Amino acid sequence: MSRSEHTLLQRADAAWNDWRWQLRHAMTGCHTGLLTFGVPEDIRAQVNLRYPVVISPYAFSLLDPANPRDPLNLQALPSAQELLAEPGTAEDPFGEQCDAACCHGLKRRFPDRVLVMAHDRCAMACRHCTRKNLLRGTDVVRTPAQLAAAVEWVRTHPEVREVLISGGDPLLLSDRRVAALVKAFADLPQIDAVRIGTRVPVTLPMRVTPELAVALGKSRKVWVNTQFNHVREITAEAAAACARLVDSGIPVSNQSVLLKGVNDSTDALFELCTGLQRIRVRPYYVFLCDPVSGIAHFRVPLAKARRMERELAVRLGGLALPRFVMDLPGADRKVPVNENFRSCSVPCQPR
Ligand code: SF4
Fold this sequence. Notes:
Elements: H1 3-16, H2 19-24, E1 27-28, H3 41-50, E2 54-55, H4 57-61, H5 71-76, E3 106-110, E4 113-117, H6 144-155, E5 162-166, H7 175-186, E6 193-197, H8 200-203, H9 210-218, E7 222-226, H10 236-247, E8 252-257, H11 266-278, E9 282-287, H12 302-315, E10 323-326, E11 335-336
Parallel strand pairs: 4-5, 5-6, 6-7, 7-8, 8-9, 9-10
Antiparallel strand pairs: 1-2, 3-4, 10-11
Helix pairs in contact: 7-9, 9-10
Bound molecules: iron/sulfur cluster.
């Protein structure tokens, strides 16, 4: 290799490993890098209009161009099935958009926990996202004045002891803004934990720079929850990103979503959970799909989820065994799938 070729390759590497470059070059729109798998352009355009497509080059590089049913393709590429109507679903079944109890960007679902919507963008627009109907146009804490109002609301509600910073993906904000958000809440004496919900370890691992990891670890109150759904997402880059967080003193847990065609077999989840344990990420929850419109094709029947949880419990030790749960509108907690629960009309009823 000549010297100039070497320099060019180094520059290409530097760009690839720069998270801002990745965001600037994200695939958007209905062409999705020509991985269209025979879906007509007008259908792709309709889906993209309703649920815009975004895929970071890193996430795109993991897709399988030869297999439309590839588990990573299903999470990233638009499908006509997103437009299907499904009885019992809603765009915002948990009323996140109109939570009158809180101020802009702050949502309260449980008495001791609040959700702070910190951003409305993600490195990849996951096709199964529970907020796919909300992200565009949701209230987000954007300005110092809004942040001050949110902190003041929490301060005057001393029963709140945990803040979840999510979105969208809060780690797409600058280091300075992420640090300011975390510090503002972590400095309140009543707060025991600031949880960050982020998928960047999976879809944009270069965002977890050493500087960001150290900054987040400093508060000693930060926990990170991420979302690996398939073992192939545990790449060397993703493992390194998680290691940077863990080595900075941040507990990292994983909240998978149970997705038809992606991870709805005991073997697939066994591979995922053992892979996560190897990179020191604790498999924490497996969520059933929420009763949200646009994700009907990912839904796994409750009876199957119950069976899978029982089968996994035979094969995995406690540290690698996630709890299978679901969010139900109106419930006061996450509901374990193997628990008898009150009847409701959402599509995750036994069937
Ligand atoms: S990263 Fe999270 S919030 Fe963003 S699209 Fe994916 S699942 Fe939704």
